[in-house]
Design brief:
The chain has 99 residues and is mainly alpha-helical.
């Protein structure tokens, strides 16, 4: 793994992923306190080091796919190259909608 996985993307890509992650957490109403805890943990996170990938890693694969389906192609590509750099295989990328 190179340093790409931990490199911040553009601010636009970071903010887009953060917005979609918060939207998904907001819609998880079965455990409101858990959702609030997750939102509170990311709402003030900045675009530094590995925070971009952290926003996605907070979700299981099914919810990662939901977040990814709402992103622009540019942001999807920024995630994809980082996941490949981090050692993820094509089958996983396909499963979450990046391949």
């Amino acid at each position: 793994m190179s340093k790409l996985y931990y490199s911040p993307p553009t601010d636009e890509q970071f903010n887009e992923l953060k917005e979609k992650a918060i939207e998904l957490w907001s819609g998880m109403g079965s455990e409101p306190s858990y959702s609030k805890e997750k939102i509170d943990s990311i709402k003030d996170v900045g675009n530094v080091e590995g925070n971009f990938m952290l926003l996605l890693a907070m979700f299981d694969s099914g919810n990662q796919a939901k977040v990814i389906s709402k992103l622009s192609e540019e942001t999807k590509e920024a995630i994809k190259v980082r996941m490949i750099d981090g050692g993820n295989q094509g089958y996983y990328l396909k499963m979450i909608g990046l391949w």
